[in-house]
């Protein structure tokens, strides 16, 4: 990243920094020199890790705290629930920032990309390390926008716990469901923070009920609000039966007091707190911690990050109820026997230092200037430096132990999702142990391989467009920029159009493509031109068809002759990859090389269907005959198979499949009718209309092609008051009339 910079700090500059004011001892200076602390001067923050005020901790506890005191957590939520603001308040109260960052002002710590600060949204998951009451917290602020769901998936793999932030006026929203399902998939324990309790329309009971009904979770009410909306003043600690009231005259929320609940002054509040406490009486701190880990219940807290209320108790809850790394059960760790095992979960590119790889250490330790082995890439690389991340500011460290997250410098080939070990022999030993364990439990070997190579599932893109450099001389620069961006963001696909020779960008949505275009301009200085945004359709066949083809070519003095007979037929299960089968008459006679050549030919033919040139899915291909002249190359076999299958696909009855989106529109009652009328024109299928406080929530399906540019239309229809969320549902067959119209448009007949 262009704004990731290290400045050399001379003694004169150091003496002016706030957190060095009282550090005059030569012993302390020598200790800090040994620690090799490098600090970016772009932002003030009140203390280094472990240095709160004048409290100087041991160097070992700063670099590698005890594993029981580590919390690797993420903050996840629907867009605009207040994730980044909550993160900013957490950093402020932990002593890491001296001023309160604000999303609307564009000066937040974790939203460090220019696009994030301009748009007020989180795009990349930024890792931040800080201390709170003796605990080391590695926190990752994740996106809430559906175009960047992969960022959430990527960081959930490395988290031990998560804080789910909710808008108390809206409860569970569309993207909340998505990230909650992702957390379920990775078995991540959670606590809930009902944010925006000060907002007009905020309802604690409504939000809790939506957690119970929509997420099917069991809420444990650890707090109750003191007032709601503009009357919100603080929270009730149900466990201690105390009120936490914030001073309304305090600018930063640091001034608050605890008061016991008394029957004389708070009879109604005491009654509610007593009832809630009775429900919790047998599930106090240790038990709450246990059920949170088991994911049988979720602790619920409340507050208002924007108004600086309720954040300190949230930090306490993170340390008390979310697990340490040693409390998470990772089955694959037993196979490494304490040797290094780490997961690369994020790659950034820095102009000065090259690729920066975020690494989560599961076992063993990592030091600078040591060689590591990448299992996925089957290559050995050297780690030159280790950095403790503070958003776009980094502190160099000499060692990284199990449970910690840090940045590595010097890895040229490691990509997102790669498993890192100490050596190739260590990987082989772990694989043998996994295989033995699998045989004992009668498991398939693929299970062991899946755990060893723990990666991130990358969704298929739904949008694409061409991208061109300002001149052909700049094409190599564009290729380099796209290669770097792909390594950072695996959901971005880049391919070459075989007909036009143009570079094609494939992404997860309009915003995704727009951000990539913007980053190429800002970070790589290239004014590129985007073609019109197009939907990624797919094709399928409706009936079985056989075809035969012969390829006969002489290259030099060598004759290449191959004849193939195959059958293509539709399959019911949805699959982007073709199902490849072999008839009994040929199954036993084919060599491994011939099989691979046949399969390569099939995959190549399915990349471009006969209608739109879109990928063909839900198809099974059976080989009935393959006659190969001696000396025929595998390339010629693949070419003949590809041509034969394309011939079969052209003869078959075909249909176009279009991406269908789950749509959720939140709109006030007065604008409901025009919104419904507009969706009807967009081939929308309304499933239900729910009530959410004073608003209506329209839930349904709509084809992606009909929803392009919808945000602008919705703003116009509702005077900017409505919001919407989109998520890919599935691919659905177009009706004949719409398909005919699309084909006419594509072929220039309309």
From TrEMBL:
SMART domains in the record: EFG_C (SM00838), EFG_IV (SM00889)
Chain ranges of the Tr-type G domain: 68-326
Gene Ontology biological process: mitochondrial translation; ribosome disassembly
Residue intervals passing through the bilayer: none
InterPro entries to which the protein is assigned, alphabetical: EF-G-like_DII (IPR053905), EFG2 (IPR030851), EFG_II (IPR041095), EFG_III (IPR009022), EFG_III/V (IPR035647), EFG_V (IPR035649), EFG_V-like (IPR000640), G_TR_CS (IPR031157)
Reactions it catalyzes: GTP + H2O = GDP + phosphate + H(+)
Chain residues that bind GTP: 77-84, 141-145, 195-198
GO MF annotations, alphabetized: GTP binding; GTPase activity
Keywords, comma-separated and alphabetical: GTP-binding, Hydrolase, Mitochondrion, Nucleotide-binding, Protein biosynthesis
Signal peptide: none
GO terms for cellular component: mitochondrial matrix
Subcellular location: Mitochondrion
Function: Mitochondrial GTPase that mediates the disassembly of ribosomes from messenger RNA at the termination of mitochondrial protein biosynthesis. Acts in collaboration with MRRF. GTP hydrolysis follows the ribosome disassembly and probably occurs on the ribosome large subunit. Not involved in the GTP-dependent ribosomal translocation step during translation elongation.
PANTHER family per UniProt: RIBOSOME-RELEASING FACTOR 2, MITOCHONDRIAL, TRANSLATION ELONGATION FACTOR G-RELATED
Family: Belongs to the TRAFAC class translation factor GTPase superfamily. Classic translation factor GTPase family. EF-G/EF-2 subfamily.
The protein, known as: Ribosome-releasing factor 2, mitochondrial
The organism of origin for this protein: Bison bison bison
Name of the gene: GFM2
